From TrEMBL:
The keyword Hydrolase applies. Zn(2+) binds at H72. The lineage of its organism: Eukaryota, Metazoa, Ecdysozoa, Nematoda, Chromadorea. GO terms for molecular function: metal ion binding; metalloendopeptidase activity. Binds 1 zinc ion per subunit. Pfam families: Peptidase_M8. It comes from Haemonchus placei (Barber's pole worm). This is Leishmanolysin-like peptidase. One of its GO terms (biological process) is proteolysis. InterPro entries: Peptidase_M8. It is an enzyme of class 3 (hydrolase).
Length: 139
């Protein structure tokens, strides 16, 4: 029953705001096109969460099936937030939908929010958190 409730909540949130027409495409930030939600409230929350005053918005998923691509937060950036593209994990509701705070990526800066996982790990070889443990084992 809980799984059905989560799925219904995700579909409702999709209809309330996760729509391609409310997104823009940004170029030259990474090596691929990035779709983001750039409304003033989302940009403010993304900047606050990642501690990145130059962040233009919140990145949208670019991988997965037709129901995931462009319909959910980017998994690399938002991990298990309710609107990230996974239905099999326990969800954390972030401030994005005004529920509770999300720890994934919190205060890790612009590089975490805009670079690849590999780049982040290479930039932080002694502490690749949250992608790996200190011993480079998956978390």
């Amino acid at each position: 029953m809980e799984k059905v409730t989560r799925l219904n909540t995700r579909h409702t949130l999709t209809r309330l705001g996760f729509a391609r027409r409310k997104m823009v495409t940004s170029w030259n930030k990474v090596k691929h096109d990035v779709h983001m939600v750039v409304t003033p409230k989302v940009m403010k929350e993304a900047r606050r969460h990642f501690n990145c005053s130059t962040l233009e918005g919140a990145e949208i998923e670019n991988q997965g099936g037709g129901g995931t691509v462009s319909n959910h937060w980017e998994k690399r950036v938002f991990e298990n937030e309710l609107m990230s593209g996974v239905t099999t994990q326990v969800f954390a509701l972030s401030r994005m939908p005004k529920a509770e705070d999300m720890e994934w990526g919190k205060n890790l800066g612009c590089a975490f929010a805009t670079k690849s996982c590999l780049t982040w790990i290479r930039m932080n070889p002694t502490n690749p958190y949250p992608f790996c443990t200190i011993h480079y084992e998956p978390r």
